[in-house]
């Protein structure tokens, strides 16, 4: 007859006996009680911390979470990069310098222009890949952490932007737009999740509003850069705004 094996449990240790009685070791019960006591203390500490955070004033939050607020505001500036690019690329489609360089057809007056199909590719390419970045950010930030994910997204956006800066044809412009959508999607979600996780509830409305303010800031920066380079009648008219980014 095969020899009976001793069964093990992750919670308690027990040994089957032939008389049908199920016996539990005293040492296993003590370990289980100690674990449950620790969990109860952790739950109590969490309730106290939550209550203190909800009753904290804005001034107290600024003093106790100073560095968390500074880091969240610095990370939110990545949204300026994304908004600047979206505003600039949309304006480039009407730029004479840009149309002369990348025009795919002629209008009724014989001037080069970019066809609607290519315009849709430039504008929607960023949005399409942003969806992937929005989805992937949760997994990447959970794996690498907020800071490393942000640093990697900034590095990727910096490298992909060279495709726009040195684009020889319209195909390269569309490719750069599609690739830039991935880090831009990360920027949109990582900034908000960082604020919600790292700052107290009393200061979160101000910091999330600051993220929206960054979207407004990039519109002013892009408008100024485009207006300043409008007088340039060569490729620098559109390359300089890209380089400013």
TrEMBL record:
GO molecular function: carbohydrate:proton symporter activity
Membrane topology summary: Multi-pass membrane protein
UniProt cross-references to PROSITE patterns, sorted A to Z: MFS
Transmembrane parts of this sequence: 64-84, 149-166, 173-195, 207-226
Compartments, record wording: Membrane
Highest rank taxon of the organism: Eukaryota
Transferase listed as a keyword: no
GO cellular component: membrane
Pfam short name (any one): Sugar_tr
UniProt KW keywords: Membrane, Transmembrane, Transmembrane helix
Residue ranges annotated for the Major facilitator superfamily (MFS) profile domain, each copy included: 71-245
Family named by the database record: Belongs to the major facilitator superfamily. Sugar transporter (TC 2.A.1.1) family.
Descriptive protein name: Major facilitator superfamily (MFS) profile domain-containing protein
Organism per entry: Epicoccum nigrum
